[in-house]
Amino acid sequence: MKLGVLTNVIGGTPLKEALPYFKSLGAQMVELGCGGYPGKDHCDPKILLHDEAKFQEFMNTIKESGLEVSALSCHANPIHPNKELAKQFDDDLHDAVLMAEKMGIHQINTFSGCPGDCPESKNPNWVVCAWPNEFQEVAEWQWNEVLIPYWKDFVAFAKSHGVNKIALEMHQGFCVYNPYTLKKLRAAVGPEIGANFDPSHLFWQGIDPLAAIRDLGGDAIFHVHAKDTKIDPFNAPIDGTLDYRTYGDPLNRTWVFRSIGYGHDELFWKDFVSQLRLVGYDYVLSIEHEDILMSQNEGLVKACDILKRAITFEDRATGQHWV
Questions:
Q1: CB atoms < 10 A from the CB of 249, how many?
Q2: What is d(CA 284, CA 221) in angstroms, rounded to the nearest whole number?
Q3: CB of 142 closer than 8 Å to CB of 115
Q4: How many angstroms separate the CA atoms of 14 and 43, rounded?
Q5: CB-side exposure of 67: number of CA atoms within 13 Å?
Q6: Which residues neighbour 116 within 8 Å (Cβ) at sequence distance 6 or greater?
Q7: How does pLDDT run along the chain (323 residues), one tens digit per residue?
Q8: Alpha-carbon distance 116 to 118, whole Å?
Q9: Cα separation of 80 and 120, whole Å?
Q10: Cβ burial, residue 237 (10 Å; 0-12/13-18/19+)
Q11: Is 195 exposed, middle or buried (0-12, 13-18, 19+ CB in 10 A)?
């Protein structure tokens, strides 16, 4: 298993400077934002797909750093009811596939997206309750008329360009937000759909990430984000964990994103790594830093410190004496 970082945490720093910094922290892989919400600071397909000199410079920069690229990140909502926004996201996702193909990478990370409640909607409608009954009708329309058809078409395009792993982050606000919905879309579309497994979005839902790993299994986990969440011990018992207050108001929110070790202790992360290995996942833990209580540097340093002790970097032992 390897330690990685999602590079947009310091998107304002040129790639040639960012990569040595990540390596100095112990990172072995990087996840590059190339569109959608993560932006294109370190990898802009609109340029790199059409300017061979700049592409070669980009690839040389990565090679000289000694780091590998774990995936391209294009977290987006390509089924947004605003057609203009949906097209922008969809264009970014298609460019991400073409960029991955050119780089020789076989997976991208993104969101499932969320449509509105009918063709005339202006904003997404995230359905998370079964009653009143119209919510079930909305969810059925979203899945059967929008979500599944979109991803069937997109997977066919991706496969034709050598990308056979579409890692969806289970995230609030989108149709795929827990293991049940991920498996539902995977069953409808195909094994090219899997998880970019981020435990931070599971904690606040009351999901045990260790149990979720066992439920999904290694075949359905394509990539892993390392990000923690702290359930506020004062606010959550009063208001619960459904919270639309801004992330910029951590004092009053019922949960907040934290750097590794500030939501759950080191033992949890060792168990997390062990469960991943038990189901056969042995790829990357990619740090996504969104801790509003820390600087970017300190949050990354502390996260790397714990993960370097938690990750098992070497291959597991083998031997007949266990048989």
A1: 11
A2: 11
A3: yes
A4: 10
A5: 33
A6: 81, 122, 123, 124, 125
A7: 999 999 999 999 999 999 999 999 999 999 999 999 999 999 999 999 999 999 999 999 999 999 999 999 999 999 999 999 999 999 999 999 999 999 999 999 999 999 999 999 999 999 999 999 999 999 999 999 999 999 999 999 999 999 999 999 999 999 999 999 999 999 999 999 999 999 999 999 999 999 999 999 999 999 999 999 999 999 999 999 999 999 999 999 999 999 999 999 999 999 999 999 999 999 999 999 999 999 999 999 999 999 999 999 999 877 655 54
A8: 6
A9: 11
A10: exposed
A11: buried
Q: Is 217 left (phi over 0), alpha (psi -120 to 50) or beta?
A: left
Residue (of 106, 111, 81) closest to 93 by Cα position:
111
Q: What is the CB neighbour count within 10 angstroms for residue 292? A: 13
Residue in the block written with tokens 């960012």: 18
**Angle in degrees, 0-180, between the axes of helices 179-189 and 148-160, rounded to the nearest 10:** 60
Burial letters 66-89, b for 16+ CB under 10 A, else e: ebebbbbbbbbbbbbbeeeebebb
Domains of the chain: 2-322 (3.20.20.150)
Query: CA 155, CA 182: separation in Å to the nearest integer?
Result: 15
Unique residue bearing structure tokens 């059409």: 50
